[in-house]
Amino acid sequence: MQVKAHKFDVGNIVLQERCPITPTDTAPMLKVRLAELGAKLLQETLKDLPHCLHKSVPQPDFGITYAPRVTSSLAAIKWQDMAAVQVYNLHRALTGLYSLSTTWHGLPIKLLEPSLEIGTSKQEQQTGNSWLLNRPGYVELDHKSRVLRVLCADTKWISFRAIVVPGKKPMSPKDFYNGYMSKHSVTEWTFT
């Protein structure tokens, strides 16, 4: 980009290339790829600078989006509003900056190592409690997979392999179940 004086991200596009983003890419992965691509394009530009500057084109005035400042508040999961894929994509975007966060009965916690899931609640399978499907934020431990599963607004599940409680090191879902979930009725197993 040919930068204008005293302006940020304004000026003609000197050279560009598309960079595909896969459904599993995280911000750090993309940062590495973009750095490599940027270095390659910079070398190409410098090899033939007069020609590249002559061929530069103005940035379009349409399709512009502005991202909010990235703060820890962006990591807060809104279970009532977010689909499972949105929670997963939030993790992908914030990896390396902030861990996803939520609360358990007023206790702030961090959720680590997410993955998308397909299937119904183990609790619903055992008891037929369809009310669970209307409770975004409902949490359960899947003993077989050793993950903590959370129901999202779209009635799909996202699972986590590690949980961090303030003042403690990351714990397994089973440890979280034993130390926190088992002290509450199944009807109170909800993140907010």
Explain what this protein looks like in three dimensions:
This protein is an alpha+beta fold and 192 residues long. The protein folds into 2 domains: 2-54, no CATH class; 72-188, Methionyl-tRNA Fmet Formyltransferase, Chain A, domain 2. It is 27% helix and 19% strand. The chain is built from 5 helices and 7 strands; from the N terminus they run ββαααββαβββα. The protein has helices at residues 27-47, 49-54, 84-94, 122-127, 173-179; strands at 2-3, 11-12, 100-104, 107-117, 139-142, 147-151, 157-164. The strands form 2 sheets. A 5-stranded antiparallel β-sheet has the order 3-4-7-6-5. A two-stranded antiparallel ribbon has the order 1-2. The longest helix is centred in the first third of the chain and has 21 residues, at 27-47. It is elongated, with a radius of gyration of 22 Å.
List the helices and strands and how they pair.
Elements: E1 2-3, E2 11-12, H1 27-47, H2 49-54, H3 84-94, E3 100-104, E4 107-117, H4 122-127, E5 139-142, E6 147-151, E7 157-164, H5 173-179
Radius of gyration: 22 Å
The tally of domains stands at 2
Supply the helix-strand structural class: alpha+beta
Total E-strand runs: 7
Any idea what the CATH superfamily of the largest domain is called?
A: Formyl transferase, C-terminal domain
What does the oligomeric state look like here? single chain
Strand order of the largest sheet: 3-4-7-6-5
Global geometry: elongated
In terms of DSSP E residues, the strand content is: 15-25%
How many helices in DSSP terms?
Answer: 5
CATH topology of the largest domain: Methionyl-tRNA Fmet Formyltransferase, Chain A, domain 2
Mean pLDDT: 89
Distance between the termini: 44 Å
Based on the coordinates given, report the CATH architecture of the largest domain.
Roll
Low-confidence stretches: none
Q: Please bin the fraction of helical residues.
A: 25-40%
CATH classification, class level of the largest domain: Alpha Beta
Q: Biggest sheet, in brief?
A: 5 strands, antiparallel
Order of helices and strands: EEHHHEEHEEEH
